[in-house]
Every structure is written in C-alpha cells, then in structure tokens.
Amino acid sequence: HSCNPFHWISQWNGKFFEQSCLAHVGLVIHLRHDGRQCPVLTDMWDLFNGEEPEDWLDPEDLPSVLGPEFQLKENTMVIVDKSRVHHLKVQCYHCPNAIGPVIQMFRHGFFPASSNRLKTAFTFRVLDYFLLDNLECGTSVINYYSKLWQMTSSMFPHLVPDQYRELMRVARQWRQLKTMKWHGFGHGSDSPTAGDLTLFCLV
What we know:
Layout: E1 10-12, E2 17-19, E3 28-30, E4 77-80, E5 85-91, H1 101-107, E6 110-112, E7 120-123, H2 124-137, H3 141-152, H4 164-182
Parallel strand pairs: 3-5, 4-7
Antiparallel strand pairs: 1-2, 4-5, 6-7
Helix pairs in contact: 2-4
C-alpha cells in the first residue's frame, strides 16, 4: 500500500471487520527515496514538533459503539483526498541541500493548508475534482466537503475533522495557480496585469 496510501482498509477485531487506517498498521509516506526512509536521520524538520492537535475530540462526543477512530494519532497529518479524509504519517527527507518541507509536499502532489503549521494537506486530485464539480455542477465548498464527510463516515460525519475553511482557502489558491499556468505565467517572474487572465470567447 505504499503506492496507494489512500486505500481505506478494514481490520478484524476478533468479531467482525471494522474500518481502520493504514497509519494504524505502520504506513509512513516518505516524500523521496522511492518511498523509503531517508538515510539521513534527523529531526531538523519535524513537522509535528511542539504542536498539539487543534480538533481534539471530547471523550463524551465519541460514539459508544465500536467504529473507526477519528482522533488524531501522534505525528499524523490530516490529508484530504477525493476518496475521503485520511490520517496519515508523512516524513520529509533530510539529505544535504534538501529543499524545504513545503516544496517537498508540493512535489509529492500535496497542497499544504499552511506554510508554517503542516498539519493539513489536500491532494492535487481532490482540488481538481472540486474545481470540476464547481464549474459543471455549481457545487459549493461546504456541499463538496459535506460529501467527503459522508464518504468518510456516514454514521458519524460530525466526528470527521472539519477542514471546510482550509478547503475554501486552498481551493481559491489552486484556482489562481491553475489560471496563471494556463495563461503562461507558471514559470516566469512576470506578474499578470489587468486582463491577462481573461478567457475570451472565440464565437
């Protein structure tokens, strides 16, 4: 599953199969070295050092029945994919002259919700799917994220991490970046001026 980290697995608990997470069985997403651990062992870019989970759930709010765990595990990130919301471990590489962790995540297809607190990321795939839904179906951010809530847990959607505000902000940034790329501003230093990003009708 190292090449398919967003698969949703089930584990046998002694009586029946219950939803689980690949992070629970030791999966770590390594951002380089073909998915293997970086040989340079250091914590200089510990993404989670000194940070407390912001959305920690009160035990009274958790369901009394057995089911998937929604509490943030230690050293895990919330990664939103088109399939659902995931908790996964992400490890940067620390080789000499390595690029910053934010750029590492971009190169791996993750769009971090913050540049200084790397706790939430969106895959490029979910951002593209949202833009398509928004264009063709008029889907709003809240409706799209509500669908992801239901896909993650139809029984306890209110226990799934609420990244609606993060998606709203990142989706606007993603749309702007795609528009600049389509108009030839992706790799240049020139900033677009008024009218440069306009789509003209040829009819």
